[in-house]
Amino acid sequence: MKFSYTWLRELVPGLKMDVTTLAQQITMKTAECEGVHDPGAFAGASVAAVARAENSEPDSIIEIDNKSLTNRPDLWGHLGMAREVAAIAGLSVADPVEDLPATASKSDLSISIEDSNLCARFSGQRVENVKVGPSPLWMQYRLNSLA
After folding, report:
1. Beta strands in 50-146 (DSSP E)
2. Residue 72's domain spans which residues?
């Protein structure tokens, strides 16, 4: 499984460990890292070109042996691995959806919970005015580097 070092640093504010040290710490405390590598180029755009376009530094990818994650489904995504990294580093995890607007709008949708023993809570968010188009370059870069 591959994890973006940049994404992990965004989810764990204050993370000062370099990527190699972090990979070593993950290996010692959580799961076996198979290595750290540069995601390389994708779709004709070099890592340096993406970094320049986004005013950021090129990312590094931490690759972890899938067998060592088999019994840890909480680590099967970036947020779960960020929680583990935060625990290793003694830091907190940032809420990735904290900035979503919590505005109430009138809707023709009605939800009712018929048995609160079976469903203690339900939440949802309506998304309107979505524009379908190419993803921003930074998102294309991240997703392609993890493919």
Report:
1. 61-64
2. 2-145
